[in-house]
Amino acid sequence: MTTPTKTQLGSKHPADTPSIIKLTNITFAYPGSENKVLDCLNLDIKSGDRIGMMAPNGSGKTTLLHTIMGLCKPETGGIEVLGTPMETEKDFTRIRSRVGLLFQDSDDQLFCPTVLDDVAFGPLNLGYSRQQAIDTSRKMLKNLGIEEFEQSVTHRLSGGQKRLVALAAVLAMSPAILLLDEPTAGLDVAVKKKLIHILNHLEITYFVISHEFDFLNAVADKVYSMDNGKILTDDEIHIHRHEHIHKHGKHPHVHK
Question: Beta 230-232 vs 222-227: how paired, if at all?
């Protein structure tokens, strides 16, 4: 008998488990396009969820995260974050410190001279004193095992190092939920293992997008996908690896 993986098991919630993020009938298309990237999409992320998402390029995964953050304005539908309806830019501004978004490209969120400055930026904007922000940042860098980069010039770090610094910057703000967009992109095996260890030891709700099945299987309790602008839950999909040998070797071929 095969032991079920975490993604097969999924997770159940008590009826009174609060929603961290709830999207209802969200529709979105980019200006000038008739193609609906999100089409009557629904999503309910509960406290304690560890959800992975695997879907093709162009399916709307990043747009979904940007919609949650108020960076993309839906044509129709409702967004609730931490129990509060998001209706204006002011509403989104108020909750962005509580929703930690890790961008697909770390250079999009790292812009300070040194690593310590980048990680301390968020706490300073939350009203921490300079010393409190530094202490919080140093603790976070140590927790992620990258304290030796404290005084490094951020843009000179490797892609994997930048990714961990960006994660430290997000976690330093003590968010209620993490939204991670392709966190393993460009990482070597050692850094991926470190990231898996970090996520598995965080007591925080998160929603992570990745193309890597093994990574999602290691960090998520359930895996969703997207198709035609809608989310497919783990009851509706079966994600699997396709491992096989062809007598034609490297010659192009078609699966039917």
Answer: antiparallel
3 lies in some domain: no
Q: Provide the token pair at 219.
A: 């960090």
Residue 93 contacts residue 102 (beta carbons within 8 Å):
no
- Domain membership flag for residue 247: no
The angle formed by the CA atoms of residues 20, 22 and 27, to the nearest 5 degrees, is 150
Query: From start to end of the chain, where are the E strands?
Result: 19-28, 38-46, 50-53, 76-81, 84-85, 99-102, 177-181, 205-209, 222-227, 230-232
Same domain, yes or no, for 190 and 93? yes
Give strand pairing partners of 84: 81
Q: Using a cut of 0.70, tell me whether the model's pTM lies above it.
A: yes
Same domain, 87 and 211: yes
User: Can you tell me the distance from the alpha carbon of 106 to that of 82, in angstroms, rounded to the nearest whole number?
Assistant: 26
The answer to whether residues 58 and 166 belong to one domain is: no
Statement to judge: residues 233 and 117 lie in one domain: no
87 inside domain = yes
Q: What is the mean pLDDT of each run of 10 residues along the chain (256 residues)?
A: 38 73 96 92 96 93 96 96 95 93 90 95 94 96 92 91 92 95 88 91 94 94 94 65 45 44
How confident is the model at residue 187, as a pLDDT?
84
